[in-house]
Amino acid sequence: MSSGKHVVVIPFPFSSHAWALVNLVLKLAPAAPDVRFSFLNIAKSNSLIFPPPLRAKLPSNVRVYEVSDGLPDGHCRPMEHTGEHVELFLKAAPENFRAAVDEAEQDVRKKVSCFLTDTLVIFAGEMAEKMQVPWVALWVPAPYCLAAHVYIDIISELHCESSGGGTSTDNDNDDDKSLRVIPGLSMMRISDLPKELIDDQDTSRSACMLREVGRVLPCGATAVVMNSYAEVTPTPLIADLKSKFKMLLQVGCLTVSFPPLPLPSSSTSDTTGCLTWLNARYPQSVAYICFGTVAMPSPSEVSAIGEALESTNTPFLWSIKERTMAFLPVGLQERTSAYGKFVPWAPQAQVLSHPACGVYVTHCGYNSMFESVVGGVPMVCKPFWADNMMNGRMIEEVWGIGVKVKGGTITKSGMEKALEVVLRGEDGKEMRKKAGELRERLVKAAGPNGIAEADFKVLVKLIST
């Protein structure tokens, strides 16, 4: 199908964004063997997603390039998802990536025929327009979050009219806070939106970028690819988004496997010891706690989680950063050693698919949410930012497969109640049943007759011809 095209790939190198685009490229490469893919990314991100052993095994038509991260010379701190680092990256990115594109063209000896980027890399749209080539943008978060970006002007008006000013609250029943005027978002509230999206006073580069995404994509992107399944997305929402973009493709969850990957057959594959430890627990009895790679609860919330786990004698597996361990109640590790395990990292997808896993205490990241669905595991939700709040509302109120932390802050009593409800109550049994039903729908959606497979073939044709 292909005729020797050259696709430049640019991820947004923070949080978990890059993983989805990497997985998409690794899926596209064998489907379009004549297309050359030049993956342009900063060194710190590349080192995480393409360690040397993996880089040596990449398809022959995929080549990785490293681009300056924008940090000044002598800046020794690691590149992390902090406001300072994101700002420095965004400031330097357009110039640095233009130079990297020139290098890739000379190396491959082919002019760029298409840009495939994260939607947050909006400067790629300008580059594609100048070069008169297509711009294909991957939307990694939830579809309803994309709709919020597209309708940013209407949302800004609602925010100004709202007496609550868009501040986070559980009392979201006021009509002026509802987003029901936006197709497919009737269940959402202004308080569910990222504050950077609705705060016009925030003039940082990252906030301005977020507010521009929904205005740039409809006119600039040849196609918008969504990291989701049409079969589990509200029909009015998808119909409206399709009317806004030149082409809208839903190619499935790029970081999650439906059905789940099998558990390792031996403990030799379990380098962390998590799965071996889970093998000794009763079915559906363990609380798995993890807030992703970036989000971090407050010291009081960390302490409250520990106190609740101990007071309820709940078996738990807690993926926790070393610096966060200092906030645990004194002596907690020793007192809970018989039924609790602390690890710096866990094979999350396999943990959530393990029969012993009974509940997932999560920040409601989009990928994490679907990993929980793969395992049929209900959730206790503590949203932090970005699309977390919207995901939390979907989990609790639309899908009915979890509960949000009451009041938005984790307390000992609140966590005790949530664990009781989800792990040991009748409501928890119903949540687990619904999670299993949703998993089956997604397994079918991911199959050969699902919309995702058809849309993927359209994407292959687009970048190839």
UniProtKB/TrEMBL annotation:
Q: Where are the transmembrane segments?
A: none
Q: Family, per the entry?
A: Belongs to the UDP-glycosyltransferase family.
Which SUPFAM superfamilies does the record associate with it? UDP-Glycosyltransferase/glycogen phosphorylase
Q: Which CDD domains match?
A: GT1_Gtf-like (cd03784)
> Which key words are in the record?
Glycosyltransferase, Transferase
Signal sequence residues: none
Is Glycosyltransferase found in the keyword set?
yes
Q: What is this protein called?
A: Glycosyltransferase
Enzyme Commission number(s)? 2.4.1.-
Presence of keyword Lipoprotein = no
- InterPro entries, from UniProt? UDP_glucos_trans, UDP_glycos_trans_CS
The protein's matches in PROSITE patterns, at most eight in alphabetical order, are given as: UDPGT
One function term, GO molecular function aspect: UDP-glucosyltransferase activity
**Pfam families assigned:** UDPGT
